[in-house]
């Protein structure tokens, strides 16, 4: 049992708190010497977007999607409706008070731990997102690559 | 390692985009020669409903549930609140433009690939759904059958 | 293959129906002689809260969170927006009619089956929840303990 264990997380959700959970588990698994991959698909792709707007040649629909979707981790909303009124700002205030890491820092740590941050190419195509709009550390793959990793994985989660 | 690998997905969600993700992964895994099962429970059961209304002997409450729940894959809504205004119609337009398969076609493909489409009998009983209302290819089982498959599975996901 | 199989569920969601699904799977797996752990994190922690208010020394923000979050399983809301109007009350009525177990009973059964009900200590710290507010059967651990179990687990789910 000396072989490397692996954790493969599909991040489908665009919610701030769910993305936090994904990155906390991923960073924990990397600290345990797992090979870790986060496969960002659908709304989860927003976690990899750069903060600043990127000039890109887009159709009208793609531009609209680009504007409507949160640009980067810190712009994502919460999953829990009961908190919608206060939202991520309050959560971030509480997190700061408890020295918990905001999502952006968790993603930076994931990069430092060499976690594979994969962007789903099918979703990119669908929503008109381009490589220039995503973090430099992003890798690009489809569902086949995910399955190739996950079928031998130890911890596979859909978040 | 020549034995068949298996993918077991619990589809709990009644969201159009989550069901798409479930069926894209399932079809991918089937193409990889996995034995694939999608266990439809709670709101995920709606993906298996036939489009047309079926005459059935129901209580008032069951009739009400039947009317309120979307009848078939193409009637399901989106998980992402930010898009609620535009909803599945816009997504479908974008998908069509990119030649992506709508959910109904993904389910048909799953049938062709002999993916096991299982309807959770406990949920059927709870919501008053009857076999005649679900796709002919549906199989019927409970949580015990799911666990029997999943405990030896390679990729187990809850969507 | 005579070793004990294990099921490890992360319950992130605070939705009544998702918590039901988690506990139904967990109880099923325990009946199959799996070692079962439910790791309650973020909003999932509400399932472990006691019904009655507990006197605790809290900051204003913590008091606010404590009031806003549902106190115990039976106060949790539904995931499905289409039913928001009627909510858990109708579901419970339907469940009663079909002799299905409400969430509170499913949790009691989990305790009887010696399922490990773990409260995520990071979330407790973040939301200002104290041990006195949670079920006596609760265990306390962080993500590292979860990963230690899950990396050798058979069925790992994020709900």
UniProtKB/TrEMBL annotation, chains A, B, C:
What SUPFAM superfamilies does UniProt report for this protein, alphabetically? DsrEFH-like
Domain of life, per the record?
A: Bacteria
This protein is called Peroxiredoxin family protein
Instruction: List the source organism.
Output: Shouchella xiaoxiensis
């Amino acid at each position: 049992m000396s072989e490397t264990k692996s954790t493969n997380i599909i991040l489908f959700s665009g919610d701030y708190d769910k993305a936090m959970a994904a990155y906390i588990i991923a960073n924990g698994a990397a600290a345990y010497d797992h090979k870790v991959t986060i496969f960002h698909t659908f709304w989860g792709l927003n976690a990899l977007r750069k903060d600043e707007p990127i000039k890109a040649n887009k159709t009208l629909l793609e531009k609209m999607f680009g504007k409507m979707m949160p640009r980067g981790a810190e712009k994502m909303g919460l999953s829990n409706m009961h908190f919608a009124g206060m939202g991520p700002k309050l959560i971030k205030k509480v997190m700061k008070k408890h020295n918990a890491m905001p999502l952006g820092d968790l993603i930076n740590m994931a990069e430092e731990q060499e976690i594979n941050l994969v962007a789903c190419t099918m979703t990119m195509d669908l929503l008109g997102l381009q490589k220039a709009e995503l973090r430099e550390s992003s890798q690009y793959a489809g569902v086949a690559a995910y399955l190739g990793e996950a079928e031998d994985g130890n911890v596979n989660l859909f978040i």
